[in-house]
């Protein structure tokens, strides 16, 4: 009977490994934001995710693998975001600006985590650089003007910064839309 229970638990774990991996990455990203890289220990991540340390090590054998998983998830989320931008068609630049100030989303949490990691990790810096390049490339392809694309991206950066530090102005997006309308966008 004990063997049956153990195999049932193992098959349940095998059925949902991606759910467990996502919970671990969520916990890691949250801990990076709240406590920094030194506070995002394997023990803390396992506890935050409600997984044993052995369960964490089953999915991510080290902190380096957890970092790699977090950055791979950021890359995936950015790819999905760029696809959503492109799906917005003529409104691509407006989609980018409207979503720039969103907080609490999986993409936002991944960006914050990568920013924390980038203080000590070159791969995180590279992931953030690739993120910015992907967004810029989509904006530039859409607008056909690299200077305008960079300007829109920098406006989005400012909106994101202000929102994350509770400095946002309720009317900011309205003002940006008014200026873009005067530019024919």
- Structural class, by secondary structure, is mainly alpha
Shape: elongated
Helix tally? 10
Overall mean pLDDT: 88
The total tally of domains equals 2
Q: Poorly predicted ranges (pLDDT <50, ≥5 residues)?
A: 1-15
- Give the terminus-to-terminus CA distance: 68 Å
What percentage of residues falls in helices of 4 or more residues? over 70%
Strands, total number: 0
List keywords for this structure.
Arc Repressor Mutant, subunit A; 10 helices; about 0% strand
Question: Gist?
Answer:
This is DNA-binding transcriptional regulator, AcrR family. This protein is mainly alpha-helical.
Describe this structure in words.
Keywords: DNA-binding, Transcription, Transcription regulation. One of its GO terms (molecular function) is transcription cis-regulatory region binding. This protein has two domains: 1-61, Arc Repressor Mutant, subunit A; 70-185. Residues 1-15 have low confidence and may be disordered. By secondary structure, it is an all-alpha fold. It has helices at 2-15, 17-39, 42-49, 53-59, 63-87, 92-100, 106-118, 122-143, 146-164, 172-182. Helix content is 82%, strand content 0%. α2 crosses α5 (63-87). The longest helix has 25 residues, at 63-87. The protein is elongated. It contains ten helices and no strands.
